[in-house]
Amino acid sequence: MNIIKIVFDVISFALNTALIICWASFIFYGGIWQAGNFMSIELNGLLRNSKKAYKPNSEQFEVIERSNVIQFDEMGYPLRLVMINLGNGTVDHVWRDTTEREDDVVLEWTKI
Questions:
Q1: Torsion over CA: 18, 19, 25, 28 (sign)
Q2: Could you give phi then psi for residue 20, rounded to 5 degrees?
């Protein structure tokens, strides 16, 4: 009888340890726990937010030159061709959201 009790205690300890590890993982790293299609709990996680504070922002760049050429995207917003310095010594050409100016040249594309 004592052997069965010891086996059940070991199984209970293992399951409790696994549950604590799952909860700690959910709290520290975030995730979604869902019960069926009607109930869900979503958490961003404590460590994910702290990593963002120390992570350098790789999206920062410096606009070097703007052109007077604009084109319109599929939703009708104007895009301007600009040259940007990526910070590592390279220069790239990208289309950025902008406003129309009086001296702009509108670039129109035609299918061949």
A1: negative
A2: -65, -40
Collect all residues with Cβ–Cβ distance below 8 Å to 66 and sequence separation of at least 6. Answer: 80, 81, 82
**Per-residue pLDDT in tens (0 to 9) along the chain, 112 residues:** 789 999 999 999 999 999 999 888 878 777 777 777 777 777 777 766 555 555 555 566 678 888 888 888 888 888 888 888 877 778 888 888 877 777 788 877 778 8
- Residues 39 and 11 reside in one and the same domain: yes
CA distance 44 to 48: 7
- Asked if residue 96 and residue 80 are part of one domain, the reply reads yes
